[in-house]
Amino acid sequence: MGETIRSIGFIGLGAMGQPMALNLAKAGLPLVIWNRSPVKAESLAAAGAEIVTDAAQVFARAAVVILMLADDGAIDAVLDRGGPDFASRAGRRTIVHMGTTAPAYSRALETDIRAAGGRYVEAPVSGSRKPAEAGQLVAMLAGEPDAVAEVRPLLAPMCRDTVICGTVPNALLMKLSVNLFLIPMVTALAESVHFADRHGLDLDQFVAVLNAGPMASDVSRVKLPKLVARDFAIQAAIPDVLKNNRLVAEAARAAGIASPLLDVCHALYGETLALGHEAADMVAVLTAIEQRTRALG
């Protein structure tokens, strides 16, 4: 890998990436970090990470580079995919894609990275900001076995579990399968709170009953208090939910699979965004349900 390549690179300090990188730094791993907004890197510098001024420096120093970026455009830009620097950034390194993109995009990215002499691992995670802060994410891994074996132990400070899913893009398909359950589940939870509230029930009792029953989960225990308190502070943002919803629907259509519950959810989260909740948690879907109730008259 060369004598100057010693650190682990991390690019992308969004709502999930920042606490993930912070857990790596706190674990004592030698991190070199770049983020488009330098302010977000301040806490990482305080934890001992090296902050650099451009993405090129990350690739120059790191044998493994973790990307936690918003979309395929951001990934392509950081890697200079299709540009003159792609071969030097992707070659002789292991690129770890921890965000959520279309499976077909990931498969094509793997092909390009391997052609440049690099290795590629898909490692999308299940969980929102709070599990990210606690190091309790679940990572799904796909790629060549030796690359996966190299990356898996590095994820321990961020993830309570890692599951090897086979070849690319199986990790992303697994992530989308999980999201296909998560999105309707939280939407149904919001609708049930709305139903109980409109019938004048004691919402604290409702929470107690649900938490005592067989449907309780880590997700419901986090989201129920937010719904009752109308606390829309971001854990999983509405635009991100819409993006994930779209990716699942596109993968379903490509395979000739129906997704009726997901399609209803997509409409509701679109309505939530139109109501001005771009900077709100997914539980703000409650407002779209309330609007539909008002429309009934």
Gyration radius, in Å: 20 Å
How far apart, in Å, are the first and last alpha carbons? 67 Å
Question: What fraction of the residues are assigned to beta strands by DSSP?
Answer: 5-15%
Largest sheet: 9 strands, mixed
Share of helix, binned: 40-55%
Q: What's the order of the H and E elements?
A: EHEHEHEHHEHEEHEHEHHHHHH
Mean pLDDT: 95
* Number of H/I helices: 14
Helices and strands in order, then pairings?
Layout: E1 7-11, H1 17-26, E2 31-34, H2 42-46, E3 50-51, H3 55-61, E4 62-67, H4 72-79, H5 86-90, E5 94-97, H6 103-115, E6 119-122, E7 125-126, H7 129-134, E8 137-143, H8 145-151, E9 159-164, H9 170-198, H10 203-212, H11 218-229, H12 238-254, H13 260-274, H14 285-295
Helix pairs in contact: 9-11, 9-12, 9-14, 10-11, 12-13, 13-14
Describe this structure in words.
This protein is α/β, with parallel strands linked by helices. The protein is built from 14 helices and 9 strands. Strands 1, 2, 3, 4, 5, 6, 7, 8 and 9 form a 9-stranded mixed beta sheet that branches. α6 (103-115) links the parallel β5 and β6.
